[in-house]
């Protein structure tokens, strides 16, 4: 959806997060269809970031495949259209479903090397956040030199703060 335009406009501020969530979604056939992203009310809390990042990736696809000029024209004519599909049809000669099909192909090609060896995150460690709760973000993990402790930033308790986790007991606490 258009929510991706904010992500797109923010540049590389959180490019690593965007790449991570879209890459994993492509690898495991969980990338949302663009027609599903015209509103976010139906998304579960844990899917919102993926929704934004998919919209951002779709805009990058548009620019890469059709050029900056057509992308700018699309944004300009979008204001006069009731829906994205008719604006795409005017500028590209294809509707949203066809654009979405090509976008998904582009994403699979973009991550083809990764997809060959991709494994679910659970193969690498235990899950720290769960989709049935308010979205949580655990970021920037760092191991202690002895490998017994992991430090990371998390918003699980409200505002983001530094946490310490004992990897043997699997207990974590804010610092």
Largest sheet data: 4 strands, antiparallel
The proportion of strand residues reads 5-15%
**Given the structure, what is the number of helices?**
7
Shape: elongated
Please tell me the overall pLDDT.
85
Mind telling me the C-alpha Rg?
19 Å
Give the termini distance in whole angstroms: 38 Å
Spans of at least 5 consecutive residues whose pLDDT stays below 50 are 1-10
In which order are the strands of the major sheet placed? 1-2-3-4
**DSSP strand tally:** 4
Give an overview of the whole structure:
Strands 1-2-3-4 form a four-stranded antiparallel beta sheet, with no helix packed on it. It starts with a helix and ends with a strand. The protein contains seven helices and four strands, in the order αααααααββββ. The protein is of the alpha+beta class and 175 residues long. The radius of gyration is 19 Å and the shape is elongated. The model is unreliable at 1-10 (pLDDT under 50).
